[in-house]
Amino acid sequence: MNDETLVPVAMIAAVSRNGVIGVDNKLPWHLPEDLKFFKRMTQAKPLVMGRKTFASIGRPLPGRINIVVTRDESFQHDGVRVCHDLESALLLADQQATIDASEEIMVMGGGEIYAQALRHASRIYLTEVDVDVDGDARFPELDESEWQEVQRVPGSPAEGQPAYSFVEYRRREE
């Protein structure tokens, strides 16, 4: 738990060995099992995302409160709540999570939002993809003195897909 929210903040991403999470506002791979994992982990939880991440999806994700962080004061979209900074988005998500009895708030990108949210997070769910790719969005590097791996489950890649694992990290107790 962090100082600002009552409900724990978690981050969820798929990341390559070299830290890339996106290229041209798209995922650099197609892993159906990862998409199912994402849906299972985020269902019925408030989602916080940046505007570019929302644009890459193109619609609100069903069964979840969608909160979009943007500096664009005129941005609006049916089915989403808009905040103009991460702290406001996390407070709104915390209020909603408390009302809905959600166990955590999920931050789902992109790179700038992850970098800002890292200090708030107590859990990270990564799909670690065993490939190096070129890209323009990166996940922040985790400091091993602050984060501990608590679970690793190998994925089952289909023919032609890279190997990957579902990994959970928890912030170390101080």
From TrEMBL:
Family recorded in the similarity comment: Belongs to the dihydrofolate reductase family.
Native source organism of the sequence: Billgrantia kenyensis
Function in brief: Key enzyme in folate metabolism. Catalyzes an essential reaction for de novo glycine and purine synthesis, and for DNA precursor synthesis.
GO molecular function per UniProt: dihydrofolate reductase activity; NADP+ binding
Name of a matching Pfam family: DHFR_1
Entry keywords, A to Z: NADP, One-carbon metabolism, Oxidoreductase
Superkingdom classification of source: Bacteria
Keyword Ligase: no
Lineage: Bacteria, Pseudomonadati, Pseudomonadota, Gammaproteobacteria, Oceanospirillales
Catalytic reactions on record: (6S)-5,6,7,8-tetrahydrofolate + NADP(+) = 7,8-dihydrofolate + NADPH + H(+)
Domain DHFR: 8-171
Gene Ontology biological process terms in this record: dihydrofolate metabolic process; folic acid metabolic process; one-carbon metabolic process; tetrahydrofolate biosynthetic process
UniProt EC number: 1.5.1.3
Metabolic or biological pathway, per its Swiss-Prot or TrEMBL entry: Cofactor biosynthesis; tetrahydrofolate biosynthesis; 5,6,7,8-tetrahydrofolate from 7,8-dihydrofolate: step 1/1
Protein name: Dihydrofolate reductase
